[in-house]
Design a protein that fits this description.
The protein is of the alpha/beta class. It is built from 8 helices and 12 strands. The chain folds into 2 domains: about 120 residues, Response regulator (Rossmann fold, 3-Layer(aba) Sandwich); about 100 residues, Winged helix-like DNA-binding domain superfamily/Winged helix DNA-binding domain (Arc Repressor Mutant, subunit A, Orthogonal Bundle). The chain is elongated. The two termini are about 30 Å apart.
Amino acid sequence: MRILVVEDELDLQEAIADGLRIDGYAVDTCDNGEAAYELIYEVNYDLVVLDLNLPKMDGLEVLEKIRDEKPELKVLILSARSSVHDKVKGLDIGANDYLVKPFDFAELEARIRNLLRRKFVQESSMLSCGAMKVDLSKRIAVVDEQEISFTKKEFALLEYFLLNKDRVVSQEELIEHVWDQHADSFSGAIRVHIATLRKKLKSVLNYDPIGTKIGEGYFLSEGGGDVHA
């Protein structure tokens, strides 16, 4: 999942971004409202963590523009404004959640997981692919109680495929949702990571669940992925 962190306190911005990257998210950052609006307009983010006290454009103005142009985009306000009036205003304008600074990072993680589950109409943090059970909250996958080792990027790919099971996902969509703003779409990184993910899945499931639709992209199917023209 790809997240934009909009925070003008650079130490806090870096801490949040690093923590979310450790969790396996692709994270972009910016430190002012105008840059945030430009990025949100150009990139299909899954969620935005938005401060309110921003230079160049206030966070509430950014939120209003998001709701006008991308009403389905999940927005979590992260602000030092702690009054009931500020919370009500933010939620009324269209924020999906509101967390007051200072905060515990574990709570931020939990709220982000909850919002992303809602985006994909996924009530449970447990998903499956054949005999493999995947816990999105704990970020672990097991087969017959044996944990499978994935890199962060492999797990992020697996999560996105599971949330879009049986749907063809293009390479461009994977770049938008699994990689961050530093990704090179011509580097071949997607094919390399999918190849290693396929190898690991095949070794535990005894079949390759990731299929390729030539010219369109990839899909995950419990019945096994075949190449489709």
